[in-house]
Design brief:
By secondary structure, the chain is α/β, with parallel strands linked by helices. The chain is built from nine helices and 13 strands.
């Protein structure tokens, strides 16, 4: 126990040191922002955005764009830039950019890079994704601010407490489902959560809840070739001799497990794996895929494109 505590203290020391170094480097080059936008594709968009940044003495740190050949011909862009010390703040930049956005009919957002998205994690009785997210957050590799953990079971109250994270137990039964969802919405509002992560939360949410959090709730589920639904999917997969198991992270919509996909991955398996080992392999890939999806959302790399996403890596 003493050895484990010593390791944790050293990890926290290095995390603080790393964060301090980043703050010093960031202060030297000014405040950083991320601009994301989509609009009908037409000549002059990149020029207009670049000209606006030049007018504010901004330095472009990274820029990515994508033009889709479709009936709508949509254009998508993400620009990471810095403004020198004493330059315009977020409100001033938003006000100044509004004329560019109006000229090109943009859907756009401007984010302060230093601000961390307040995130609420929801879980049931499978804790591998929750544990992975909390560890990544604690060690500084997950760029979010964890506002709390919500569960329909009390199993992970101690885990949340070990990270000094508020834990809310909201039991769900068929007769109490509506009341439980009302409590959940209250927690989301009270914590100011901008992102809700379903880290293997095994309850189907109502259409009302899905609509309230549209575009800011991410779910993870297994992906098999072929697909298996219902109870014990890994046992079903083992019985069919699957050679690939994987996971899909997507935004939640009222259509169950059919929201815009953010990230997917697969790993190869073979006949030597038992159903239990198959489930272990699946849990590993689920945790990795969910962590990538949350990170990309938090870094404003994911833009919605109807039922699809554009992800700028």
């Amino acid at each position: 126990m003493a050895i484990g505590c010593g390791i944790l203290l050293r990890i926290e020391k290095y995390v603080v040191l790393y964060a301090t170094m980043r703050m010093v480097m960031s202060a030297a080059r000014g405040r950083e922002y991320v601009l994301t936008l989509s609009c009908p594709d037409k000549p002059g968009i990149v020029y207009a955005v670049s000209s606006f940044l030049v007018q504010h003495s901004a330095n472009i740190l990274a820029s990515q764009q994508y033009g889709e050949e479709s009936p709508d011909d949509r254009f998508f862009m993400r620009v990471h830039f810095s403004v020198p010390p004493g330059g315009a703040g977020l409100a001033g930049l938003e006000h100044g950019f509004s004329w560019v956005a109006e000229a090109f009919h943009m859907t756009w957002q401007l984010h302060d890079q230093a601000a961390r998205i307040r995130t609420l994690i929801m879980v049931s009785r499978l804790g591998h994704c929750l544990n992975d997210l909390l560890f990544r957050w604690k060690t500084g590799s997950l760029p979010v601010e964890v506002a709390g953990v919500v569960s329909n079971h009390a199993d992970f109250a101690e885990l949340a407490a070990s990270y000094r994270i508020p834990f809310r137990h909201i039991p769900v039964t068929p007769p109490t489902k509506a009341a439980a969802e009302s409590q959940l919405l209250e927690v989301i509002d009270d914590t100011g959560a901008d992102l809700i992560v379903l880290a293997r939360y095994m309850q189907i949410l109502s259409g009302e809840v899905c609509k309230r959090v549209e575009g800011r709730m991410i779910n993870i589920h297994h992906s098999f070739l072929p697909s298996f639904k219902g109870a014990k999917p890994y046992h079903q997969a083992h019985a069919r001799g699957v050679k690939l198991v994987g996971a899909t992270a997507h935004y939640v919509t009222p259509d169950l497990d059919e929201g815009p996909i953010i990230e997917q991955d697969v790993i190869r398996v073979n006949h030597t794996l038992s159903p239990e080992r198959l489930a272990e392999a699946g849990r590993d890939v689920e945790a990795q895929v969910l962590a990538r999806a949350v990170t990309w959302h938090a870094e404003h790399r994911v833009l919605l494109n109807g039922d699809r996403t554009v992800v700028f890596h």
